[in-house]
Amino acid sequence: xxxxxxxxxxxxxLILSNLDALQKVFASELYWRALLNTFLFLVIAVPxxxxxxxxxSGFINAFKKYxxxxxxxxxxxxxxxxxxxxxxxxxxxxxxxxxxxxNMFLTDIGLPKVGWLLDYQTALFSIVVFHVWKWxxxxxxxxxxxxxAIPDELYEAAKVDGANISQSFVHxxxxxxxxxxxxxxxxxxxxSIGEFEAIWxxxxxxxxxxxxxxxxxxxxxxxxxxxxxxxxxxxxxxLPVVLVLVIFLLLxxxxxx
Length: 257
Fold this sequence. Notes:
Blueprint lengths: L4 H12 L2 H8 L2 H34 L4 H9 L2 H4 L2 H11 L6 H8 L11 H29 L3 H9 L4 H29 L3 H6 L11 H11 L3 H29 L1
């Protein structure tokens, strides 16, 4: 009540008392670009990391008896365990046009340098790559735990009946994994809307503020420009999407119960 409900009600009252500022925000081209970037980020990053997590969890679970896979099962968690600030800054330095290690490698093999953070498309691509690298291990861990809860007897019975790997996945793994997968996908969608470090620390919302999302644009308005009402209006504009995802998540939990 103190930390969520009261601030929401107070913010909503401030917005209602300053409708001109709300119209000004919605008339801004920068706002619509930030909204588009937010949805692009969701549509691209969320499916990629969840599909990768699904395949990685299956690989680790299938070959967990091998010593090399045991080592991999520890190392794949490293991106998630590294603090977000240090990893984002390191990623930004790697993408530097003049002295970044990636462009140095490209020039060593005879390819031209790429302005990773100097162009809108490559900058947005860099944010997505970092986000996927950073958060895929967490969801891999979740799906791996769900896979290990599936009884081995089911796979053994399917193998006796002549089922191949794809048939076992369709008829055994996916039906028992679907609920966890959808829950993880909804959670990561909610958290991805609030992604801040990857954008602010890697691209600085550049070039020319073209990689702003709702999160960074609202932060900029409130804490840099001092426009509290504008920042609140920006954040409240994405609230319906978050509420829909939260309601869907609650329905999933209720269904599991």
